[in-house]
Amino acid sequence: MCGILAVLGCADDTQGKRVRVLELSRRLKHRGPDWSGMHQVGDCYLSHQRLAIIDPASGDQPLYNEDKSIVVTVNGEIYNHEQLRAQLSSHTFRTGSDCEVIAHLYEEHGENFIDMLDGVFSFVLLDTRDNSFIAARDAIGVTPLYVGWGIDGSVWISSEMKGLNDDCEHFEIFPPGHLYSSKEGGFKRWYNPPWFSEVIPSVPYDPLALRKAFEKAVTKRLMTDVPFGVLLSGGLDSSLVAAVTVRHLAGTKAAKRWGTKLHSFCVGLEGSPDLKAAKEVANYLGTMHHEFTFTVQDGIDAIEDVIYHTETYDVTTIRASTPMFLMSRKIKSLGVKMVISGEGSDEIFGGYLYFHKAPNKEELHRETCQKIKALHQYDCLRANKATSAWGLEARVPFLDKEFINEAMSIDPEWKMIRPDLGRIEKWVLRKAFDDEEQPFLPKHILYRQKEQFSDGVGYSWIDGLKAHTESNVTDKMMSNAKFIYPHNTPTTKEAYCYRMIFERFFPQNSAILTVPGGPSVACSTAKAVEWDARWSGNLDPSGRAALGVHLSAYEQEHLPATIMAGTSKKPRMIKVAAPGVAIES
């Protein structure tokens, strides 16, 4: 993924502002280490830090139309760019970049072309003929984007918060699925799928249709001119991504260029069960497997860098981002620039363990809708920023627009977890790939219980984090937390520690407001906490907090201190160095 920064309509000294924009753009250079570009027209600046995936030789940005009256800076991938080029046969293209179609589509359709793009993207387009501009973000928010307003009347748009937080009077998350138009002076939603209204669907479950939709989503993401691989944990989602990639890689342009041997990558604490599971899947699929290990101390030492790059103080995001951050550096060192990952499946199919307690199909469906709408603040943020920190791009086929439409049109009764019928979490997805004649995966992998990303790295990873923060945050500090942090007040020492680090990097009130909050158990929304009375006293994002569901649910002595307050037992002391398990994606 690349980094974009645009400053539009500033009133400052032109040369001084250009120097400042260049300085701020360099804060995004980790996202795009391959090339830096800048275009200035009067008081408007468009800058770009490029990670070259498609057309590395000539696809530098910003990009233009034929007479350079239209300028665009883009972060993303347009998977249907070849079909769109065919529709734009009267236009002359300067590069082989998949993103150049945006400039020409604007010439043909004005602002009404966004839904024609099949891919993930954040872009700013400047029309120099009238000095107007538009900015847009992809449907789900796979690519990050922020918007801010300067006291001088300027509008700032940046891939990361660090590109604008020091120069804007106010800034916020650019909402996914939206377009910002300078002519209209505000946002409008361009992405309006049927599921967005949360009306309960009634389409019968068709396992073959679901399988074909996912296979299509994976194969279109094999568009690359650079070496790539898959993130593989041995869990269901990443294993399906790898299995489908292996099955469809032969015959693609990527295979002709880089060969048919797929590379797979996993990370975990030494001796972890999931490292073993990932290796088993890799052997079954015949991938070239790369296994990386880290220690709890390695992870703790990286926390400050992780918070700086992910730009969040959300506990579960930081827990899960850290091993992904460490693994991404290793992957990039091997010369790989793109990986395919399994984010989004749990939100679409109700895969988190708390969905076992969904009281009916209506509440389950509404919860999945809310989870998808919030992905840009959680798993999308993690997958993008933890990898982009090292100039690595992560692609997420479960969040393909067409696949989401297919999956979210299914009558949610089929997604309900029904032990009496042999249906565990994500049964509809598992069943779709349960092929007796040509198995995608071994049965025990296909029907393995869900582990959340941060739990999957190893229970000792989370326990180690808690022990570390316990020794760095005092009870007296916690007693004053509501006064020091009145918004999203941290309720645990771990959360307090992350908040301190975050505000050191991003002290502005606008920054604090970009991070979601509220009660959650096992990554649920606040509404779903009501599904089980026991959960209200066990508000931890770990899957083990789903009492009565997880096979390794917290025992009483493992519960957070907030729960221990009502018991006679003392919390056990945790040793930091202990074996764990690898990433589940």
From TrEMBL:
Residues 2-185 form the Glutamine amidotransferase type-2 domain. InterPro entries: Asn_synth_AEB, Asn_synthase, Asn_Synthetase, AsnB_N, GATase_2_dom, Ntn_hydrolases_N, Rossmann-like_a/b/a_fold. The record marks E343 as: Important for beta-aspartyl-AMP intermediate formation. The active site is at C2 (for gatase activity). It comes from the Eukaryota. ATP binds at L231, V267, S341, G342. Its EC number is 6.3.5.4. It catalyses: L-aspartate + L-glutamine + ATP + H2O = L-asparagine + L-glutamate + AMP + diphosphate + H(+). Gene3D superfamilies: Glutamine Phosphoribosylpyrophosphate, subunit 1, domain 1 (3.60.20.10), HUPs (3.40.50.620). Signal peptide: none annotated. Keywords: Amino-acid biosynthesis, Asparagine biosynthesis, ATP-binding, Glutamine amidotransferase, Ligase, Nucleotide-binding. Pathway: Amino-acid biosynthesis; L-asparagine biosynthesis; L-asparagine from L-aspartate (L-Gln route): step 1/1. One of its GO terms (molecular function) is ATP binding. L-glutamine binds at D98. GO terms for biological process: asparagine biosynthetic process; response to stress. Essential for nitrogen assimilation, distribution and remobilization within the plant via the phloem. This is Asparagine synthetase [glutamine-hydrolyzing].
